[in-house]
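Hey, can you fold this one?
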Amino acid sequence: MSPGQVSLFISLFHLFSSLVPRPLHRFFASLGNHLVFFILRGSRESVKQNLRVIGRSRYSEEEVSRLAKQCFQNYCHKLLDYMTLDRLSSSNLKKWIEKETGEENLVRALTRGKGVLCITPHLGNWELGGYVLASKGYPINILTLREESPYLSRYEENLRRKAGIHTISIDLKERPNMAILEIAKRLRGNEIVAMVADRVYEGQGVEIDFFGRQTLFPTGAVQVALETGATLIPVFVILERKMKYWGVIGEPIPIKMDTDRKEAVRQSVQEIAKRFEEVIHRYPDQWFNFFPFWKDNVPGKVQKQRGLLSHRREDL
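Sure. Predicted structure:
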């Protein structure tokens, strides 16, 4: 899509989302799901491939198809909610969030004074987590890959800015990478930096076990934690009953400082994959990776997801 087409699409989609009451989001998500599921055959088959790995042969083909279709519907619902995040405030938070657990883990980590790295997979409504934390007064920064569309970048940054969220855009090809310096600065100021951390870009990652298969996982979050001393915490925002979300802040990821650095990174990344796997296993229809994850995620292969289903690429 051209920049002009992107800006027109976003403007129209935002207008539509703002006019539709949130209780009707599920209905329109179902309509969008039928259209997208029918048109995007390649993405549909990729989701099914991923579900077969996640199910470890426990899902019948009928169940795989049902979960794949539900995945597209959940994603459409997420997009509608994303476009209306500017409605979220401390006064109506309970209308969006049904349950929150683990906030004490975040509070305890911030008392160390070295900042917190919040990591999450492409699961549920990860962007909503930043808005919830910002509404509670936490100093929150969102790390995102630089968007191809300047209009989309401005739209997202303005949306976050209104909520009190700072955006850090990173270009992995930039040398030297100034975004890394800003991340370190924010963490040394005892702030929170949030990122999605289940995709490898530019072939940079370490091989670990994920759902019983060897695959690459990104190392950036662990590398930054080692350099800054920041606490690494997994977080999840999952769509549950009655169109409400559950927010989960997990226990910190241990990082061994008394071992070889390369091995310390591998062990910590493996622990991240394990924590992600536990939650994805429970909510396989909310893991939004619309490409064959285990086939594409191999050493030396650049992982890129373009088009309609490339929304939000926050990764390090």
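The first strand starts at residue 97 and ends at 101. Let me know if you want another pass with a different chain boundary.
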